[in-house]
Queue: 2 jobs
Job 1
Amino acid sequence: MLKLGVPSKGRLMEKTFDWFGDRGVTLRKAGSEREYAGAVDGIEGIELVLLSAGEIPRELAAGRIHLGVTGSDLVREKLANWDTRVSEIALMGFGGADLIIAVPQGWVDVDTLDDLDAAAAAFRARHGFRMRIATKYHRLVREFLQENGVADYQLVDSQGATEGVVKNETAEAIADITSTGETLRANGLKILSDGLIHASQATLFRGKRRNWTDEQRKTFKALKQLLDL
Amino acid sequence: MADLIGAEAQRLIAAFEAAGAVPVEAAILQPASTLLDLYGEDIRSRAYVTSDPLRGEMMLRPDFTLPIVQMHMESRADPARYTYAGPVFRKQEHDESRANEFTQVGFEVFDGQNSAAADADVFAAIAGVLEGLPVRPATGDLGILMAAVHGLCTSGARKAALLRHIWRPRRFRALLDRFGGRIAPPPSRVALLEMADPFADMGSDMGLRSRAEVAARIDTLREDAALAPISGEELALIDALLSIRETSPNALSALRDIALDMPAIGAAVSKMAARMDELAKRGVDVEHLDFEASFGRTTLEYYDGFVFGFYAADRPDLAPVATGGRYDALTAVLGQGRAVPAVGGVVRPDLCLSLRGVS
């Protein structure tokens, strides 16, 4: 069996089901709505595994599932050297969101990473600690800021309602996912003009495990043909 | 293997003791806050962080420098020399073949009397323990680049911005290009400085960074925009300095040429000359010793003078066998007002063994 991991709830699951359905592969939840078991029609040899989108990268890398649908941001955040451990099979064209850096609108002097860096230096000198950037994407944000030579900041963890942290004075800036920027604006924040860390979308990934059986390889080939990939 | 590494570590410690060092120890678990405050977020990608329910975030020591400096600053014994050996821990996020736990043996000298002699003592002691191994030394001196920045004919704010990014070559280059007028300021900044009231329609303040702080930065930007660019001659001198990659005597000669037009680096270049004399006195082959002016700029930001590394000649895949340098500024940061000139280096006994063919 070739195991396909798909997000277990919400819009991401529905859109994934639609995407496969449009290509002649029907994915559905087996039994009641509450059950996390799935079924696949239209092709033999594939087992549907419903998982939290955040766990799919790890399961792919470990080889416990062979294929998986999740956000490209989650794969890059959760897997070090992601491109040596999984490969992209198809960009699916939905679930689009940008990981960006945003600062208060009142920071009229800050529009670029260069400004952010200079503001961070002054902030540290004035307040005695490094400027706090709230995020749940620690690896992606740290690598991005390191590559761009931004110093004197610290990352603080925020697992939800990140847009509110500046008002609450638990951070000075944020790095978060946004699709329209609406929530950011409503919370008095603006996006840095060169602060796009990653443009994410739902993506079908394949784990780079080399121990697939011939049967699994055949099923994968048949699936690719069906999906026109 | 562990026994062999232990025995090799003992051999190194004995050599450093013979050079006047006292053996010391340090805890493996270090408070994360001090390391984070010193090195910033970059340390998180290199050190293992763990948490203690009472003490908060702790780190498995990524090196011995911090605890040794803290211990020395508390002891107030000057001058002093220390040696130590033990495991250090490094997260490897990109290269699985690099070890994430290995033994370091170190030699640190806290001595303000004669820094050229102290530099040479550390280098010669480490060169001594590596004798016979197929390693190639490389050296540099971040103090020369810092002196060049200090000597630029421009504002203190620009110099401070450049000095802050000595260890981030890309950002340093971008700042230098902008201060030199080689690249235009971003359009958003031009627009901001043309506004009569930058805060019009801005509503109320939010967060810890106050409107006064924003206004102060706009003033800084205005002052900067009114300044003349750093001259083409000065930029060319910095470029010439950064591109030096020669044997030490040739590098010294090139630096003396630059110092004619940039007298600010004169003292730092004289220090280099004095260090070369001291190295020669200790039997180091200075004539063939490589010097790279950019060497050491991509390390964690604490080296601020002499820097060196020893690399396996035919094994580019191996991490450096030994590294070290001068870190005067770090002792000032940790010394609460007291600074002690300090220089040190570390050797990896495991790599010494593998270069000898022991596995």
Job 2
Amino acid sequence: MESVKVDRVYKRFGSGKTSIEALHDISFSVSKGELFGLIGPDGAGKTTLFRILTTLLLANQGNAWVDGYDVVKQYQDIRKRVGYMPGKFSLYQDLSVEENLSFFATLFGTTIQDNYDLIKDIYAQIEPFKKRRAGALSGGMKQKLALSCALIHRPSVLFLDEPTTGVDAVSRQEFWELLKQLQLQGITIVVSTPYMDEAGLCDRVALIQEGKILKMNTPQGITKEFKRPLWALRSQDMYRLMKDLRAFDNVDTCHPFGQFHHVTFKSELQVDGLMEHLKNLGHEDLVIRDVAPGIEDCFMELMNS
Amino acid sequence: MSGESVISVKELTKQFGNFTAVDAITFDVKQGEIFGFLGANGAGKTTAMRMICGLSLPSSGEAKVAGFDLYRESEKIKKNIGYMSQRFSLYEDLTIRENNRFYGGIYGLTDKQIKEKTNFMLEHLKLEDQADTLVRSLPLGWKQKVAFSVAMIHNPRLVFLDEPTGGVDPLTRREFWTMIYEAASQGTTVFVTTHYMDEAEYCNRVSIMVDGRIEAMDSPGRLTQQYQSEDMNGVFLQLARKAKRAEG
């Protein structure tokens, strides 16, 4: 069964010349128990989409269903069944950790004890601070409390809006391990992130930019669609190498990528010729190799086309 | 980059009560260097950076920043550095031109200098048509590029960038780094924090803080070799996992 279904949704803010189209013809569906990622930068429309699916905002056009219920006609049923962690910390800052959690449990007619098994891996990490006010928690602890509160009524679908933004690489990895655990419990998860490297941790992803879905597939499916050869180059002076490559006739795109530049060519690359050219320009310690494209390579290719 | 040190920090320490947020860190950053300042949340990066910018007094240790002493000349440090963060940079309800006038004025530039700087920036960023647009209505990527230019309006020798590219699309993120490379190639020293580990690899050198101390500091190439990792992400994970103190 489909846990989430979105059919040709449009959303526009404002009217006239200054209006902004936040979502343009968005359609996708998420199967039960799937971990689905919305991958895109700020301003792509991710939050608007979450707000429509959690019944907090009305679309201008199109339909959407969550757990089989219509987001407009059956919003009350949906609110009982979904967990939502907004991008902005939205718990009560002046209540303690424990008070926040029991408040949300009470709202849904349940108790912390009833659902403790679902949240224990996450909540155990902040339980030593359960008397502390939520406003006085660190970023990582706030995130864990917000996730616990979103889970306390055992939702069937969990919406997480940029849960890892501004979070360091270690905490990000731990957070994704938690999501995998929740998925094993049968919860459908829709998660958004601006970090392209997190796409690989989802079952399926939609790449989204300026209100439009650029591409939707499994992460492997998306990188497979990158049709042309991709090369990685490095030299002693990376800034000059970038300028020299961009000035080279046959180079189509050249983007910095960690310790290498990722480069595509307009026609088939003659490696020896290029290396000779770069050596003549004074580049030392040149390295060139072909490289498998990642999600970020694909995203940039799609933005360019 | 064998030139003089623009930042020179010795045994710099900050204590809050019994808690040692920054624990005797020592490092130098050279003129024109791009220096990445990494660490997990709660490792002490922000506290260290606030001290080096002259915003918070150290408990002990020494530091010279842009040639000035951290204890006696913190006002001079503030005048001679640029600073940009993702959270606070430009006034959203002022236009690009007004932000330039405001920051130029703060740093004591003349009207003529401000005008020249503003025109140069608008041309360089190809934003001539947007000069009188409110910053609020600019796309995030443009905002960040304008914010970087404004942070450089007084030609500082040294600029601090605190997570400058969070949430920005991948193409704009790279354009931003091209601006960083450009500034460094003209001799500006860049001190940058980021959570993107591929960006750590754009730096000439990086330091990684764990529990208030600098656990590793070298070029990304040497660090990945030393920690037998494919990339900086692997190095970072190995080091940051050693952290003992909980995020405070």
